[in-house]
Structure formats: C-alpha cells, structure tokens
C-alpha cells in the first residue's frame, strides 16, 4: 500500500477567527477512488482547495504525490488534474481543439499531446465526435469531455467534483463506467466529491465523512454501513410527544431525532421487530403519519455521523481553481 496523499493536522483559519479545517488527518492510497463527503460548511471544499494548492494552510502539512503543498506547490500542480463541476470547455471550439488548448496550458509536447488526446477520446467514446463543436454536444458528451480535459497532462491524481451533476439517471450510470475505466486503465488516483451518495457508494473504494473540519469516520461503504448495527425505521408522528414516546421502545439499538415530530430508530432486524413495533404503537395510542423501513444506506451513515441530510454543498469555486492552476502551471 502506497500513500499518495497524506495530511497531518492540516488546518485553515480565516481572518484569525473561523476554523474551516481543524487538524485534519487523512491518508489516500495510490490508485484508489476516494470519496470525500461533508455537509454544508464541513470544510470539504477548503480541504480540496489546500490540496490543489489554491490556498495555503494556516498550519499543519500535506504531502501530495511526494510533494509538500506549500514548499513544492508548483510540482504539485503538475501531478494533479482538477475537473470542476462547472463547465470549462469552450463551446465555440471542437472537442479536439479544447483538449489541444489544455495541453498547451500544461506545456505538453505536441506529439505527446496528440497521442494522449486520441487515447483519452477513445476511452470515453468521443473519438467520432472530436471534430464537432462542443455546442453541439449533449450534456453527457460535454461531461465526458470535461472529464478527460483534466487528464491531458497525464496527472497521477484527479480531483473530480460532481461529475454527473445535471445528468439524467441513465447518463449518470454511464459516466460511472467511464470513471471506473479511467481509474483502472490509467492507474490514476481519484478524489471524488458528489451530492449523489449512491454515486459515491458505487464508485469509491473508501469514503471519509468530514464535519466541522475533522474526519468523523473513514472506511469502505460496507464497513460504514455495518457500523450502524441494524436496520432503520424512520417515523413521523402528529405530535412531538408521540415521537418522544416512540424513542422509549425497549428493543432499540439507537434512536435519533430527525426534526419536528420525526425520529429514526435502529433495530437489530426489522423483519422480526416490526410486529412488536406496531404493537407498541397501538398499545400507546401513538399517531403515526409516515413510516419507512430500510436496510442501512450511505445516506443513513451520513445522517448518523453528521446529523444532517446531504444537500447543497458549500460553494467551492472549482472553475476558478482550474483557471488558477493553468495560469500557475510553471
């Protein structure tokens, strides 16, 4: 196992007051797809902006592909690629022309760039559309072009932000295939952020959930789900009093408030427990308005550790990050 990214007590404090990242310690293995999740304001975007050398840490350190993000920031930029969620390719150029332009930003020798671009176009099935103007591309084609634009200079690490944002379910699933192919065939390490937890679940070898600038938990998807130790019953009642009474059900593994009149209960085995739950509700005359039963999902893990549902993330200007990296490539 080779560690390609390692942070030690990485910290970012803004204006001497607000601590966005607080002594963060993570290790990312070479060749893995690493999912990084966090609720609004968790420090996820700030962490990535430090790792791609857009901003400097207040204290602590990070090594990326063998280079210190502060002492060797120029070398870091040469070994990483960034694919922002915002579209950065030029609609008035062809797909091929866009990739050639990116290669020039990174000073890739012309012949090497041509070989690399042809390989990447084929990898994401865009070779037959390379000469078309990007304005003629579908949403999925555009996303595929954005994906390989971050790989033209042959980086060791790819930061991939919201790769399927705005795509329909079928196209998103196809994009997952391309991401897997890129990781396997190019042997690139991918750091993935996404609002779609099923996407992180499907793609990531390991996942870290962070909040308040700290890592709360790290593991494979199955390891994280297993930590919940049971099945999930989510219930909404007419009154908060009923919700509080439900939390006194004797066979709970755990319970958690979900907001007004709502609770999430964890039981060992929902198939065996549901008759007893129904009996408890009836005996105590509780007024249930909604109930769902499910096996643990990554959504449940996220809710368990952060107390929040994942939604609009903190605004991370990845588009500007890409432009800055190109401008500062030397």
Automatic annotation (TrEMBL):
Subcellular localization, as worded in the UniProt entry: Cell membrane
Biological processes, Gene Ontology terms: daunorubicin transport; doxorubicin transport
Pfam families recorded: ABC_tran, DrrA1-3_C
InterPro entries assigned: AAA+_ATPase (IPR003593), ABC_transporter-like_ATP-bd (IPR003439), ABC_transporter-like_CS (IPR017871), DrrA (IPR005894), DrrA1/2-like_C (IPR025302), P-loop_NTPase (IPR027417)
Start and end residues of each ABC transporter domain: 5-237
Source species, domain of life: Archaea
Presence of keyword Nucleotide-binding: yes
GO terms assigned for molecular function: ATP binding; ATP hydrolysis activity
Any single GO CC term annotated in Swiss-Prot or TrEMBL for this entry: plasma membrane
Membrane topology note: Peripheral membrane protein
UniProt KW keywords: ATP-binding, Nucleotide-binding, Transport
Main location class: membrane
Keyword tRNA-binding: no
Homology family: Belongs to the ABC transporter superfamily. Drug exporter-1 (DrugE1) (TC 3.A.1.105) family.
Matches recorded under PANTHER family: LINEARMYCIN RESISTANCE ATP-BINDING PROTEIN LNRL
Full protein name: ATP-binding cassette domain-containing protein
